[in-house]
Amino acid sequence: MRGVQVLEAAYDEGANIPDFIKRFKPNFPVGTISRDFMANYAQITPMMRVFVPVMFFIDRKGVIQAQYFGGDPFFNPETATRDHVKAELDKMLKQDAPGSAKKSSSTKK
What we know:
By secondary structure, this protein is α+β, with helices and mostly antiparallel strands. It has one domain (8-95). The chain is built from three helices and four strands; from the N terminus they run βαβαββα. The longest helix has 15 residues, at 81-95.
């Protein structure tokens, strides 16, 4: 089965998830993760200055295929972020298509 699962995880200890859900009414799972888990998973070092949002494209095996931080051109509203998201998803779905070559290592951006 081909498909995409979107989820959101706040890594701010003060995040008010119920208020977020009430205000934005997301149609995907929303929760929290620890700041340490986030930093470890994204391989963020103490020397890095990271801006939110952080977006991961994770394959079915749990491997990060791409990741973007708030300061990256990926999120520039003048260059159609929606198109960037679609392009990443299309790339991943093509990799997951029957008969396609599987990637063995992640590409971090």
